[in-house]
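pinging the channel bc i need a second pair of eyes. not urgent but kinda urgent?? the chain im working w is below, pasted from the shared doc
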Amino acid sequence: MRVLAMAALALCLATGALAACGSDDPKLKVTSIEPPRGASDGTSYIHIYGNRFLTDANGNDAPSNAKIYFGGTQGKITRFPNDGEMIVQAPAGKAGDVVDLLIVFEGRGEITIPKAFTYYDKAPETQMNVDTLTKQPAK
């Protein structure tokens, strides 16, 4: 009996968690950013996950006219693989800066995520010298 009760509790929790972030949720929101950091030279791509990026609160198709800003500098949304994901190219920034993200969905609202992205110095590229088997800076 105890095992059955625990299984029922687990099912209720799982169902509640899924309903809160699934397509039944009418709210436009961001649930995660991966990775939350990128190179300062503007070559990093990040995935932003959430809800209602391409549909409105009633489930109707909504235009994907959106803009994203990293601490005031506009990034580039490259695509929306689905209603709950967007792929973004971060703009160049100063290494060490931690910036807010602002996503503006035209006609549907905006989302600000405080201190959501950190810039780091891009490590110099290296190449392997086969003759000496040592790493050397790329030229």
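so The two ends are 69 Å apart (CA to CA). and The helical segments are 2-21. — does that match what u expected or am i reading it wrong
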